Amino acid sequence: MKISIIVAAAENGAIGKDNQLLWRLPDDLKRFKQLTLGHPMIMGRKTFESIGKPLPGRTSIVITRSVDFAFEGVIVVHSLEEALKKAEEIDSEEACIVGGGEIYRLSQGIATHIYLTKVHTEIEGDTFFEIEDPGAWTEAERIMHEPDERHIFRFEFINYIKKADK
């Protein structure tokens, strides 16, 4: 099964603050939908709470330490391994890791792809993402987006594939 990390990060690695995204980039949201539609999305509880509800056309698998957490329409698990097992049971060819910071850190060793939106700004955050072993990845594609009336920041879509020997 393909395991894809999908993340948007500023140049300083910031991905969020106070459980909220740091920007609104419509083309990035469109890409997120295209990448995740039809695939299970694995996320931490705080990320799910920031989204607020299960997204249509995707199965939400929420990892939490809480034994009391429940939400209609989501699968609740207590480890990344359990989340991946549930994704395989759904018979999906791809599982999408969509946050937050701790889940990204836990999943880098097993991920096969990273879909990074690199936002060209430095912004204050309390949650961060960085590629822990850059030598393990090959850049497959890079698409630049300049600021416009809908996007305050310049940003790039960068796709990475894990090298076969890693």
From TrEMBL:
Database matches in Pfam families: DHFR_1
Pathway: Cofactor biosynthesis; tetrahydrofolate biosynthesis; 5,6,7,8-tetrahydrofolate from 7,8-dihydrofolate: step 1/1
EC category: oxidoreductase
Domain named DHFR: residues: 2-162
Catalytic activity: (6S)-5,6,7,8-tetrahydrofolate + NADP(+) = 7,8-dihydrofolate + NADPH + H(+)
Function: Key enzyme in folate metabolism. Catalyzes an essential reaction for de novo glycine and purine synthesis, and for DNA precursor synthesis.
GO MF term list: dihydrofolate reductase activity; NADP+ binding
GO biological process: dihydrofolate metabolic process; folic acid metabolic process; one-carbon metabolic process; tetrahydrofolate biosynthetic process
Keywords, alphabetical: NADP, One-carbon metabolism, Oxidoreductase
Full protein name: Dihydrofolate reductase
Family: Belongs to the dihydrofolate reductase family.
EC number: 1.5.1.3
CDD domains listed in its UniProt record: DHFR (cd00209)
Species of origin: Dyadobacter soli
GO cellular component: cytosol
Superkingdom of source: Bacteria
InterPro entries referenced in this protein's UniProt entry, alphabetically: DHFR, DHFR-like_dom_sf, DHFR_dom
